[in-house]
Amino acid sequence: xxxxxxFFISERVSSLLSRYQQFVQEHLKPLExxxxxxSFKAHLPALVELRQKAKSEGLFAPHLAVEEGGLxxxxxxxxxxxxxxxxxPLGHYVFNCQAPDIGNMELMHRFASEDLKAQYLHPLQKxxxxxCFAMTEPEHAGSNPIxxxxxxxxxxxxxxxxxxxxxxxxxxxxxxxxxxxxTDPDNLNPYQRASMILVPLDNPGxxxxxxxxIMGDVGxxxxxxxEVEFKDCRVPKTNLIGEAGSGFALAQERLGxxxxxHCMRWIGICERVLExxxxxxxxxxxxxxxxxxxxxxxxxxxAESAAEIKASRLMVLQTAYLIEKYGAKAAKEDISTIKFYVxxxxxxxxxxAIQVHGAxxxxxxxxxxxxxxxxxxxxxxxxxxxxxxxxxxxxxIQSYGAR
Length: 403
Ligand SMILES: Cc1cc2nc3c(=O)[nH]c(=O)nc-3n(C[C@H](O)[C@H](O)[C@H](O)COP(=O)(O)OP(=O)(O)OC[C@H]3O[C@@H](n4cnc5c(N)ncnc54)[C@H](O)[C@@H]3O)c2cc1C
Description:
By secondary structure, the chain is of the alpha+beta class. The chain has helices at 11-37, 44-56, 75-85, 91-94, 101-111, 114-125, 247-283, 296-326, 332-357, 368-374, 385-399; strands at 131-134, 151-155, 158-169, 176-182, 194-200, 206-211, 225-236, 240-241, 285-287, 290-291. It is globular, with a radius of gyration of 22 Å.
């Protein structure tokens, strides 16, 4: 294991961080309750205005290169900004670096044709449209990404796509999706059977069946998870991203930096949740002489959360550094480690916060219930925790001489 590098934050990033912090505090927090527990759609005009403000302040799309309208940050630098934005459920959205769009932007930037970039990527980068990513199918274990039924068959100059997907996050209101479909079912290598194909969602062969309720919350627009159908859905064969048969390899490429983004967002959530915990513990009087924060068990919980957050941050930043220096493939085990470690820290920090808040913790009067409901998925998406633990354990066992 390489020695931990110094995570020196340059003056530029440090001043950017305080500007993002101020933006979140002044403009996003006041909107949260309404946009998250009320109607997200009804808040779109206000959110669009905030995107304009972010643009005029030179803070929009921090992950992009300068020539693409971004700030030209390294993965490591963007990670720290992602942590600040994660403190609000609206943060990444307002700055146009939200999943799944950020993953699609990274993927298309590297692998899409110039035509697809002009037609779809550039408006996406400017925040004029949204996108989604359709890989998981209800009929198959999503944890095995080569087990897919959706097929794309070439017919002249077009692919004809048939299939059923779900948990296509943010499909509602999206302009296009990138769909993972089998294009070469007989390939002896199962990892070379599928391809990624771009489908504009006004296509008559595409249908959003429903937004899937998540523990009672059906969601809408960006804050939703769609079940979708492709029925004789025809797109030009030039909508292929990368090479035919490269779908699995591209999915891997998409997920490396993606896990840094998710983990730093989760750490941002943890920080906000810890802040809520501390404020509640200080304010809640048990009797005229004592508040909750006086109790040792509460103090220990706060200390445990703070330590876990700090450990998580160091692990994720080190992994970002390794990805930048050696590439996602070389950092495979580190990427797996942060995925299952930080998702569990997130669960523990939120759960402790709910306990400290008592009955208030399970109401929708704070953001805790939103995160408890929606972030439970963190242990499932981007590869369930078990799969990542296996990746890490195999490498460790091999280092002791196992075949
Ligand atoms: C909030 C959320 C957003 C998502 N967004 C998207 C999206 O935008 N696009 C998209 O295509 N998909 C998306 N998904 C789907 C996600 O990728 C899948 O849920 C994930 O891959 C797991 O697949 P599955 O749900 O079919 O679970 P299964 O594969 O059926 O696994 C069920 C459980 O079995 C266990 N398990 C699985 N494999 C192993 C193993 N090898 N060893 C031991 N235990 C194992 C795990 O506990 C796992 O949770 C999203 C999911 C969630 C929850």
